[in-house]
Amino acid sequence: MGELSRREFLGTAAAAGGALLAGGLAVRPLAAAEEAGWPKLPPVKIHVVYVGTGGAWPTPTFDAPAEVAKFKSYLAGVQERLGDVQFVGGELIANTLPAAAEAAAKLKDADAVMLVHLSFGSSEPLLKLVDAGLPTAIFSQPFSGHDWMYVPRWQKAGKRVILSTSSDYAELERAAALLRVPVRMRQSRILVVGGARGTAPACSAEQVRQRLGPEFVPIRQEQVAAAHKAVDPKAAQAEAEQYWIGQAKRIVEPSRADIINSARMYLAIRDIMIKERAQAITSSHCMGEPAKGCLTFSKLNDLGLVGACEGDMDSTLTMLIFAYAFGVPGFISDPLFDTSKNAVIHAHCTSTTKLDGPHGERAPFLIRTQCDSNQGVSLEVQMRVGQEITCAKLIDLDTMLISTGKIIELTDFHDRGCRTQITTEVADARRMAQNWAAAIPGSDMMTLLHRVVFYGNHLQSMKDLAILMGLKVVEEG
Question: Domain span at residue 144?
């Protein structure tokens, strides 16, 4: 296939079939990694309680057991579709505090709670169950009563509960997918090669563990080099041929030996991560020897895991959150602005090729050198023009910076900047540039600059997820 210019390439590949549900929800986010040898995490147990047996609303003749049967049938399908949740419990309780206290006592083995509000007068029982302290979602369909109106007050008081007021049962699916995330974060292990970089709280293993749950696993660069040396050269050659050389549109600068060496690094990191039961890695040595980390991180992100460059722990945590919630990998970028197009340009030399998720089609890519050094192996990934994106970054373990945009072109600066480039139209590029990094303390360039780009508009779901995780949301621009 002949090479297309960035301006000619429109990137109209279809979104992944089976990887996402409506609304951008992840189906078994770690399935591809598990198939590649990573340990399987247990299903997230979500305890369901149906609250309210009848009354003035919805109607004095309300048949609560029949209503519960409809919900249970739907949730059985949700469990099958999401693939990594298990609904337990299922009690129907009256609108009384004793009934709620009895149900709350049964939550100790659950990871999260889903409350289905059925009838008027449920506010006190609902609050009793919310106060059990687990991540909680309340579903209140129209005419169930007016108890939904208390939930925003509970949220302002710091209670980790989200609310869906809708006639669409798909909201149950969305809520279940979000409830997984705090649980999966507590189960996560992050390999940290050469020390973490970023905001001070994010670089503290103790604070990350206490605040969000992931555990740091320190790894010395000498361990990585030894694992690289131990990889069978024939295995590295096969990996390079099958996943990279045979799939690339074109190889521009690197030699075949360079690509095999980078594939060898992936296999080394894969073996370390599986041994350490890790779902993510970040390295402050990723641009050094024995091979640059660009292809390694790309393949990990293709599998639904996280590979983050430059030791950037804030971005690593952001990518984990989005992977678990939405099943999409992140593209860490060095943003810059083109106000003539009301646009942000995102550019970097490390990019996933499966931007729709692990079961999606690979985006077209060229194999290049890493641009800063013109050495090693990197990728020029041609993302989909017209694709809506979310740009985000968790800072200080408590604030999610976020914005949305749309890819309007593949940026035409072949002779400068990083290999993968996209131009994204935003609401107000000039205002965004003027207020850039206002919420980020310090002056470290990487920390101030980096953002992570994800396919899809995840703004509203991220706002709900922030409530479940006790985060603030700051919309940039």
Answer: 42-184
